[in-house]
């Protein structure tokens, strides 16, 4: 089937699997991802097994067994720090191909497919951020990828990056969030939408954890960041500002959504002494529209 990529720009929940969906449904999906309603719900993360370290190589593309299942890894290049990429909801590692290929001559780069996506196997476990972070760390450990890392998260990938940073700040040299999902998005952004759009968005989340799972993950992040000391981690936030076309649904909604996105995405910067936010005239997939900006932002973090 021919891959359609009509990106409804800027909101954080664009779903790659939606290449096969109708364009109208894509508009709804991109509004969802930062659900944070179920405060205090418990999350059970399975303990990770002891791993047998594999010999590290500067280039590796293939499956890596982390004990419960295998995940696809794409490692390119040498040099420190290693740049670790997190895709948006349902996207696969190849979305980073341009960025990764342009950085591999200077740094080691690491992208992968999360469980159930792309070439990776599904573990049958809940796709909450605690589970996903532990799976990422298992991959890095097995492939002997040394910390600290530059973590790059697009869209929903920001959930995993923020969780990793909060739990393991000593392993993080810097963070780049590219139009990243805010843990406050559900109650402060989605609620700006008409009720029928909110319901369509919630019902559309199927590729990588359902709505309730995303709710749990958002709440986890808020709780973790409340206690975490990430004040010494440099954080750069790139926020897309192109109109979404929502004025056709509700006049004036585009401006409201954009203003709220700028505010929510910038909120993480209150936690660090070394933060900056750049407003970008681009859609949600900034790293595809303006790859050089993203490459330069990563280099700036890596060279600190």
UniProtKB/TrEMBL annotation:
UniProt cross-references to SUPFAM superfamilies, sorted A to Z: alpha/beta-Hydrolases
Top-level lineage group: Bacteria
Name of protein: Uncharacterized protein
Protein source organism: Anaerocolumna cellulosilytica
């Amino acid at each position: 089937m021919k891959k359609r990529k009509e990106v409804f720009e800027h909101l954080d929940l664009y779903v790659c699997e939606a290449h096969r969906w109708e364009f109208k449904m894509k508009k709804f999906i991109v509004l969802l991802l930062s659900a944070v309603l179920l405060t205090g719900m418990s999350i059970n993360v399975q303990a990770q097994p002891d791993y047998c370290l594999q010999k590290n190589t500067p280039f590796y593309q293939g499956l890596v067994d982390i004990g419960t299942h295998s995940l696809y890894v794409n490692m390119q290049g040498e040099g420190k720090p290693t740049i670790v990429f997190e895709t948006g909801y349902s996207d696969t590692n190849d979305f980073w191909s341009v960025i990764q290929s342009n950085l591999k001559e200077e740094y080691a780069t690491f992208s992968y497919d999360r469980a159930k996506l792309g070439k990776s196997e599904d573990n049958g476990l809940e796709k909450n951020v605690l589970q996903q972070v532990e799976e990422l760390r298992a991959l890095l450990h097995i492939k002997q990828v040394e910390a600290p890392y530059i973590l790059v998260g697009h869209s929903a990938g920001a959930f995993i990056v923020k969780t990793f940073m909060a739990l393991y700040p000593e392993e993080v040299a810097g963070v780049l969030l590219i139009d990243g999902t805010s843990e406050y998005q559900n109650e402060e952004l989605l609620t700006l939408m008409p009720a029928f759009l909110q319901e369509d968005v919630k019902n559309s989340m199927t590729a990588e954890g359902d709505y309730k799972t995303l709710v749990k993950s958002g709440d986890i992040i808020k709780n973790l960041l409340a206690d975490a000391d990430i004040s010494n981690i440099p954080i750069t936030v790139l926020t897309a500002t192109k109109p979404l076309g929502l004025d056709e649904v509700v006049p004036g909604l585009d401006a409201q959504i954009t203003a709220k996105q700028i505010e929510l995405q910038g909120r993480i910067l209150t936690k660090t002494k070394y933060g900056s936010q750049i407003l970008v005239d681009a859609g949600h997939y900034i790293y595809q529209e303006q790859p050089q900006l993203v490459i330069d932002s990563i280099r700036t973090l890596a060279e600190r």
